[in-house]
Amino acid sequence: MASLNSDQHGVSRSFSKSPPTHYTLKIESFSELIENSVDKYESEEFEAGGYRWKLVLHPNGNKTRDVEEHISLYLEMSGTDSLQFGWEVFVGFRFYLLDQKKGMYFVLEDANEKEKCLHEMMHCLGVDQFISFEAFTDVSKGYLMGDSCVLGADVFVFKERRKCKGECLSMIKDSVMRKHVWKVENFSKLDAESYCSESFTAGDQKWKIRLYPKGHGKGNGTHISLYLELDDPKVSKIIADFSLCIVNQIAVRHECYKGNIWFTASSPSCGSSTFMTLDTFSEGNGFLFKDTFWVEAEVTLRGVAKEL
What we know:
Elements: E1 2-6, E2 11-16, E3 23-27, H1 30-35, E4 41-42, E5 46-48, E6 51-58, E7 70-78, E8 87-99, E9 104-110, E10 117-119, E11 124-132, H2 133-136, E12 149-162, E13 167-171, E14 177-184, E15 195-196, E16 200-202, E17 205-212, E18 223-230, E19 237-246, E20 255-264, E21 269-277, H3 278-282, E22 293-307
Antiparallel strand pairs: 1-2, 2-9, 3-12, 4-6, 5-6, 6-7, 7-11, 8-9, 8-10, 8-12, 13-22, 14-22, 15-17, 16-17, 17-18, 18-21, 19-20, 19-22
């Protein structure tokens, strides 16, 4: 490759016999782009260095950057939405334009180390003034022959860095309370350690009620234990107001537990291991009637935190 010069914009210009290795774009009837006022053309995506890219050509100059009398050419990273929060990729590029008379390529290469970092706020880099119209249309140079030209690009990924993890907390201004009622039958025949209600939805999240009929933890053997449980622990954190009640079927009185807590994947449930003593529950006080009782859950979602 024969080097010519490096300008104040951090690019060097040279000639090479070697073609691009990552992507080639051939344009036929180039003048039609100008005549039809095509401001921008984006190539298909291509892979280089483990990432996806596309060429972005402004055949009449990038008007958003006030470019005149030049062709603008850029390299844009695709698929950045799937990258981890805080990503940084340090890259270099090489743009090609074929001299069809000599079989040589005019090569423009990034020569400025400080301009190579792509990140969440900058997905694109390139050259506003890739080549002047005067040079591009000069028949003696061979860049535009029969109204056709051949462009290309190489991309070099030097290193990548992920700064940090992150999360987005969304608090809910006008929360709506959701109520779910669970009928539990044949209490005296429940012999498993715990039972779960059917899943229900509150605040776009799935929940369930978990019952330990013979107690759990501190209430083991002496109490009924009752919990509200997140049924989808994939989210980062959820804060909710909730209540769990066993309905008194005789008097207008319920036994309730209320809470306000962050539910997480590592701590997906909240409730009471000593919700009600088994004696109180079964002594004809109206909570257990004909071996059946009712549990009510009220849930109001207050906020959700998700990973970025």
